[in-house]
Design a protein that fits this description.
This protein has about 400 residues and is mainly alpha-helical. Helix content is about 70%, strand content about 5%. The protein has one domain. It is built from 15 helices and 6 strands. The longest helix has 29 residues.
């Protein structure tokens, strides 16, 4: 029995969310519904802004820092320095006011979310994640079934399918939709692996939800999701072991699987490379992203240490429109330089060190790390909710386990 599984047996599973918990849940569930926005403001933005303010006020503006709060404050500092570097060197990189407001909003949201997660007990965090999981299942699966049964691509004039062929359910593009339901696949497996859902009906519903999320992700026709899924599946095949094995046997088994994988991959390298190239070429935006990445790396060289601040976009000669680099790591470096990128990588490393106690918690975080290679996801509400949520759930489970162990030793 692993640490997480063991902790569930001593956890009170009867926590009931309050009004403000429901506001948070609604904000997370509605985050992909960007087509419902008025300008840049939608249901999620309003709910989470009100929730964040209430949370900060309740704390009387006393902030306990963690790696996420520190990252955003230092990231904002790098943005300011980068902005002045851009102005002083007369570098043109696109509009910056709207993006600056977005970063202020996310700083407030992450600070508030951090205080909430730090102060919440394990029962509250698990119930919050459970409700987000099942509410998303009920809402998005119902709308998806409605679109299939009645052959509708819109509802009340809002798109359910992007270009009438890619599922996006009220999102402006399929990727925004996948940023919610994609990680929920692994949240579902986390619940099953950790034995959190003790009710048989809920366990069956959990499996149905996972299947539904997978089908909807496939219906979004996101090649990035397919690529991420293959990588995570390989990760699971290599590192997923029986919880009953001791540490030494686990390491031995993983080592054998890794060596076996290399013995297959190395001789067939050219085949794997050709399949990858073919996969990229078949994607309508595949080669275009490589071009953007190249331009992004070239622009980073203008201010490699602190970046060029907010609004650091790229301009393709053939398309006179400012664009992001469509890569979270390049886009962070563009705006906050190597300093900002290192800070982001450090919080990811620290998060992985804690979530490693449950492989599906790790997969939830890994999903965003991999998906971000093909998109700028730093400004996605779901990224911070799931990464921080899984970090604190695992952290508090570890703490509960240690307390139980120390109690038994007395």
């Amino acid at each position: 029995m692993d640490l997480i599984h063991d902790t569930m047996h001593t956890t009170n599973l009867n926590y009931k969310p309050d009004f403000w918990d429901y506001i948070l849940i609604i904000g997370i569930i509605s985050a992909p519904m960007t087509s419902l926005r008025y300008g840049k403001i939608g249901v999620a933005e309003v709910c989470l802004f009100i929730w964040s303010l209430n949370n900060i006020i309740k704390k009387k503006f006393r902030i306990n820092s963690d790696q996420y709060v520190i990252f955003w404050l230092l990231f904002d500092f790098c943005l300011i320095i980068g902005f002045f570097i851009k102005i002083l060197n007369s570098i043109i990189s696109g509009p910056y006011i709207e993006e600056s407001i977005t970063y202020i909003y996310f700083t407030l949201f992450v600070i508030s979310l951090s205080q909430y997660f730090q102060n919440a007990n394990i029962e509250k965090l698990l119930e919050l994640m459970r409700r987000v999981f099942f509410w998303a299942f009920y809402v998005y699966t119902s709308i998806y079934i409605y679109s299939l049964l009645f052959g509708r691509t819109t509802i009340f004039g809002y798109n359910l399918w992007y270009s009438s062929e890619r599922l996006s359910i009220l999102a402006d593009n399929p990727h925004q939709f996948v940023y919610l339901i994609g990680p929920l696949i692994f949240v579902g497996f986390f619940f099953i692996r950790s034995n959190y859902l003790q009710n048989k009906i809920e366990r069956v519903l959990c499996y149905l939800a996972i299947i539904s999320f997978i089908i909807m992700c496939l219906q979004s026709k996101s090649s990035t999701f397919l690529a991420v899924s293959v990588v995570i599946a390989c990760y699971l095949l290599l590192f997923n072991t029986k919880s009953s094995l001791d540490v030494r046997k686990k390491k031995l088994l993983i080592g054998i699987k890794v060596l076996f994988s290399f013995s297959i991959i190395i001789p067939s390298y050219s085949i794997v490379r050709d399949l990858f190239i073919q996969f990229v070429e078949n994607d309508p935006n595949g080669l275009g992203r490589f071009r953007l990445w190249q331009l992004g790396i070239e622009k980073i060289e203008m201010s490699p240490i602190f970046g060029l601040g907010p609004g650091s976009h790229l301009l393709l000669p053939e398309i006179p429109v400012y664009m992001e680099a469509h890569n979270i790591y390049i886009d962070i470096a563009l705006r906050s330089g190597i300093v900002g990128l290192i800070l982001f990588l450090l919080i990811l490393i620290r998060t992985f060190k804690v979530t490693k106690v449950n492989i599906y918690a790790t997969c939830t975080v890994l999903f965003f790390c991999l998906y971000g290679i093909a998109g700028f996801s730093l400004r996605r509400i779901t990224l911070w909710f799931f990464i921080m949520g899984m970090y604190y759930i695992c952290l508090k489970m570890i703490d509960t386990h240690h307390k139980k162990k120390n109690h038994l030793m007395k």
